[in-house]
């Protein structure tokens, strides 16, 4: 296949760029934590990039997403600003949340990123509410709530799947099954073989996808998004994936019990989503190595720029503590 | 002015606002049928898309209101205090925190109408007065009206506000009648109302405690004690100055609250008066609140736990000892 003959070429290259951007963003975050340059809890999305990138590639700019504590991948996949995301990790005034959200709670309402929730499953009702608004206003906006295998066991998940189905709301539930809720495997905690099997209980389509294959994620999500946009209701897409690093940075200092084998980790490292996508692009003749290298270099420039922006940005002022609680403020005691 | 019940005034407020603003919609459990006595007739006028009966999924639909508000709708959610517990994560982590935690990005114009049931032999699971618990959570505005006019005026303020509001509807007041202005009107938050003027003692009372305090004040008058009854109307924001001004005039303070006594609204009010109005006081401030047991079913027991005229009068008299 020649470059020009593939109508999805630009999209495929953009998906590679986004995955690399998330990977390098998170690798940078790890370095920052290890150097003590940033504080707080950081959960990396390394290994899972194809899920958010493939799913968000099926969305329009004015569609909505919500996410979770593993918060960096979803906003970057949706088109979020890397400078402001990085500044938020530094707790700077220029961060997405002016330093009030931090790593776990990125959001950009201006491009439909309705917030990442540190409480698992808690953003699912929010997502379904945005979909309800879309339907009531007779718009065609679609909502993707991203959630994990752990959150699939939350009551909020089951309530919102039922709600979205009975009201035929434009929701594509994207479960990123990275197979461990901290250290508890999904086989031990989920009553069905595949989380996508649960869709049948809510009378909606459910599909299990190779979450390391960004094109497969894109195509499965696109079909579900089209269905949602036509008013035919919600779907569930399970991307089977893997978290390379521990649940959060530094947690390996307190974990005492091995919960996954070296062989298992190695097997998944070999199915790295970025490596697989690059191989696919080369084999299919969609891109050559020089073009891939150029994308990677561009990502390095963006990350370097984001770091510089974050480091040079001002911290919030003490007075900012009292801002942002209300749209129409009321007196707050200051002592 | 036309005389109406509290319930009719609220029903009118909702209808009038729905006619004015197409982004307003109502949802809750069996609200088309008007189960809580307020939403009857809405469905006939506004139809399926603006009056939604929800599944029994409080976390789901109370949280969905947040998402709908975040993208520009103005939901009114109807429920009972009892069922809010089920959705507590949504109230604490989404409703209250979303705007602040995301650096002010979210605008959440939404009103939770919450029925406060007590004194009707429903036992512990259906009998809650939890307003102080929500007062402890930054990011929520909390309103508790006591007259039909206050209910209508404050409801319109809440619905036109761009912030989340918990609108507590004391079910003991639903049949209360009062004059309501015929024209469109609003009542601002944070303006306490003197329900009865007096000079010897300030009784600050919320919700259904206001009629009881007024009745107590009448009986105190016969004993030569002139009691002022002050209704805060909104708990967040709270009209602190009106409380302190009244105490400066009377020198005595009694807070009457339907909530459990520990960390109650009455506790907070007494703390404010003790800290900021101490030099006006001629006697220790008093709390009259619900006793620290769960509401029992038996009609022989339940009334014993709530503030009544006798306990209010006794507390007032303690300030004269």
Q: What does this protein look like?
A:
The complex is a heterodimer of chains A (335) and B (321). Chain A has helices at residues 9-34, 49-56, 73-78, 82-89, 124-136, 155-166, 186-189, 214-229, 262-270, 273-283, 289-312; strands at 64-68, 113-117, 143-148, 172-177, 180-181, 184-185, 206-210, 235-240. Chain A is of the alpha/beta class and 335 residues long. Chain A has one domain: Thiamin diphosphate (ThDP)-binding fold, Pyr/PP domains (Rossmann fold). In chain A, the strands form two sheets. Chain A has a six-stranded parallel sheet with strand order 2-1-3-4-8-7, sandwiched between helices. In chain A, helix 1 crosses helix 11 and helix 2 packs parallel to helix 8 (214-229). The longest helix of chain A has 26 residues, at 9-34. Chain A is globular and about 55 Å long. Chain B has 321 residues and is an alpha/beta fold. Chain B has helices at 6-20, 42-46, 58-70, 81-84, 88-96, 98-101, 131-135, 148-160, 209-222, 240-250, 265-276, 309-318; strands at residues 2-5, 24-28, 51-53, 74-80, 111-116, 141-143, 165-170, 177-180, 193-196, 201-205, 227-231, 234-236, 253-260, 286-290. In chain B, helix 3 runs parallel beside helix 5 (88-96), helix 9 (209-222) packs across helix 12 and helix 10 crosses helix 11 (265-276). Chain B has two domains: 2-180, Thiamin diphosphate (ThDP)-binding fold, Pyr/PP domains (Rossmann fold, 3-Layer(aba) Sandwich), CATH 3.40.50.970; 193-318, Rossmann fold (3-Layer(aba) Sandwich). Chain B is built from twelve helices and 14 strands. The model of chain B has no long low-confidence stretch (mean pLDDT 96). At the A-B interface, strand 2, helix 5 and helix 6 of A face helix 3, helix 5 and helix 6 of B.
